[in-house]
Amino acid sequence: MARDIRIKTRTSGGSTEILTMVNHPMETGQRKDKKTGKKIPAHYIEKVNIELNGKLVASANLGAAVSKRPMIGVRVKGAKAGDTVKVSWRDNQKESGTQTASVS
Amino acid sequence: MNTMKRRTFLKGTLASGVIVAAAGAGLLRPSEVLASEYPAGAFGQKGLDETMKALFGTSDVTKSDKIKFINPPIQAENAAVVPITIETSLKADTIAIMVTKNPGTLAASLDLTSSSLGYFKTRIKMAGTSDVHAVVKSGGKLYSNDVVIKVTVGGCGG
Fold this sequence. Notes:
The complex is a heterodimer.
Chain A: E1 5-12, E2 15-22, E3 45-52, E4 55-62, E5 71-77, E6 84-91, E7 96-102
Antiparallel strand pairs in A: 1-2, 2-5, 3-4, 3-6, 6-7
Chain B: H1 2-24, H2 30-36, H3 40-43, H4 48-56, E1 61-63, E2 67-69, E3 75-76, E4 82-88, E5 94-99, E6 106-112, E7 119-124, E8 130-138, E9 141-151
Parallel strand pairs in B: 1-9, 3-9
Antiparallel strand pairs in B: 2-4, 4-7, 5-6, 5-8, 8-9
């Protein structure tokens, strides 16, 4: 089923940090399955877009070298409590997901 | 002859006018253009210069202390989860993280907009002890700073 996306916001000193984490394995394609000895195919998130109130504020490009359960943190200006944060991702196997949250 | 040229000219301007109008109407929003560009070619590259060329089109870079690593782990406890936080006072368009000793030098990059600040936090895997570079594109130029992160293989401190 859908991969869990967590979104956290923290406002301090006039800017807001948006932290997001996707429950994704981020397989590099280098690892071998211990039982079969076969390589596990590369499976990683390529793109994470972060929107605030429907407007794109940052777009992350990830490679297989980003840790599993990738975490992305960005800082935005002018976010207020109750504003909508939308995180959407897609990976190299055409899987994707979206989650929204409110600025706390 | 003159009329012909005028026709062609008018057609040309009309066509480009449509694109400008489309952009103005929000049909070609910069956000969508930005969101669609995954720099696939840059991720497979090895070496700083090659990676910068593939990602930014140039490897002409200036070292800048306006780019800072926030609490970098000098000794990473887990090579699979190395926390990286980069902050810059430069007006950044893109912040990229490059690890010279990894199989692919580019770990991640972040494209920013006018409403985001020069800040990028993530966690990366490292193949071994390496220098980690933060490369920032600002006003069409590249700036960078780097830090050495030691990775303990086997889990024993040294």
